[in-house]
Amino acid sequence: MLTSRGAPDSAVEQELATPMRSTDRARRALPRSATGTLVRVIQLGPVLVLAALWILTSLLSPYFFTTLNISNLLLASVIVAVLAIGQLLVMLTGAIDLSAGAVVVLTGIVGAQFAHRVTDDGVLVIACMLGAGGFAGLVNGLLIEKARLASSFIVTLGTLSVAQGIGFVISDGQTATGFPELIRDVGGGYVGRIPIAALVVLGVAVLAYLMTSRMRWGRWIYAVGGNREAATRAGIPVEAVSISVFVLSGVAAGVAGVFSVGLTDSAPPGGSFNSLLDAVSAVVIGGAALTGGRGTVWGTMVGALILGTVHNALNLLNVKANWEPIVLGVVLLIAVGMDLARGRLEARLRLAAARQGDL
Amino acid sequence: MSAGPVLEVRDATKRFGAVVALDRVSLTLQKGEVLALLGDNGAGKSTLIKCISGAQSLDEGDILLNGASASVRSTVVARGHGIETVYQDLALFDNLSVVANFFAGRELGAPTRPRGLSWLRNQRMAAIAAETLGRLEVNIPDPRIPVALLSGGQRQAIAVARAVHFASQIVILDEPTAALGVRETRNVQRLIARLPDQGISVLLISHNLEQVMAVADRAIVLRRGRKIGEAPPDAKHHDRIVGMIVGAQAIA
Description:
Order of helices and strands of chain A: HHHHHHHEHEEHHHHEHHH
Strand content of chain A: under 5%
Shape of chain B: globular
Distance between the termini of chain B: 44 Å
Order of helices and strands of chain B: EEEHEEHEHHHEHEHEEH
Number of helices of chain B: 8
Oligomer: heterodimer
Number of strands of chain A: 4
Strand content of chain B: 15-25%
Largest sheet of chain B: 6 strands, mixed
Strand order of the largest sheet of chain B: 6-7-8-3-9-10
Largest interface: A-B, 57 and 64 residues
Strand order of the largest sheet of chain A: 1-4
Number of strands of chain B: 10
Radius of gyration of chain B: 19 Å
Radius of gyration of chain A: 23 Å
Shape of chain A: globular
């Protein structure tokens, strides 16, 4: 019978207990979920690339699979990895946060000022840095959603410049050092051979995975990226979701800031923003769509590891540093090409489904 | 509850710039009634139902639900009143699974505050969606794959099933079978015909006069934003309805 809004639970339980007719019918209509299997293979693409890279590099260099090198690889990937998680959330909604790299630098400077002027309690300094990052993200989110200034691309391009400028102003152009021990440990310390920062990233990734895959809020992020208009009609708080991902991207930049200043014990106002480009690349290489709505936390982590491995391999193989940006650019272009191929394959699968669906 | 109409529209008027999309259109919808809205392209059918479902707002006129004046400011408000709408564009999320589409915006979970911070009850949602789709005999290869990979008919069927499942008062259908195959069309029609037994009223937009005659109790014809007339959708009135749709009745 028809279940309406207040359907009694018994109807559901009954349905759970009995096999579903529709599913049986579906199995006969299409070869047992061939489409689903193909989709899953496509999703595995980045993992296959990472595995191939590891095999190739270990064949070329005997040092690759040493604990010391793996440890180095992880430590060299943490900043990009945590930034990429924040960027993934933003990109899932169909936006982009170009200011993240500048916010990394800014949070380092803010943390240094806070440590020198207010307290050098490590926990409080870290909280201040994450808060500063979150605030920057909030400004981004409000400018895009409430002030409706322009697309996220333009707005965050503007706030990138503003964040960089603020960094120079409050640091007076000086590179600060002398961060609390806790921050230096988080950025450069180890548990056994494992970098503490890598464990932090793992924790952040698990948290992000749970939020995006198991919670309503995560489902809404995908919905906003998939069809913003329909999301509004469906009663999803589109603006709040959109602002929240920018805040979290800012907080992620704050974490990256902690890693960055902790590793070098310095907060240079002219710090490089390259981490942003790598983070965006990691998200795309990890299988996320540039148009929003598709991508996963674990795919992004694989993307970050692919980039880290490429960096690492080029070092191990003594490739001149000048070649590095070229190789990374090519890797990104290949990833974008894969994204395109994925889209075309999906379209073909859909056609096949259409042929078999309307019997 | 009152014995009056579930929905009453009084003198609905909507303008887009100089274009009058709706010109003092009035209608009533009784409990358990299937009312068809007929008319050529640009007649104002879609605009009218968008105003009832909260996607747009009227410039003038009133919408009464169960006799009480209702301000249907948004689709969320309309849904709160038990009104579900299947739009022509279906409002599906291509990137989400069938189940996720089914429950978009009202995912099952604990009543947390804020709402977003609740764990999803995925298994339960999957069971309910599968049950509803099974009843509709919708052919879905795998409810976990994204809707983007499904055929037009399957997509449309999902949107209809979603509306039917959540509606408690009125289901509004804008060309619900336009992209459906023969069997799926028959299933949707059968489903529409069964809704009145649940006390649910249906507002149906369709180009398909055969379909309207099969399921509707009454038919209203709009032309250029005006209500031209009303007729029982049966074989006897077939030619008259066609005449009203194309405007021949003015000449005759």
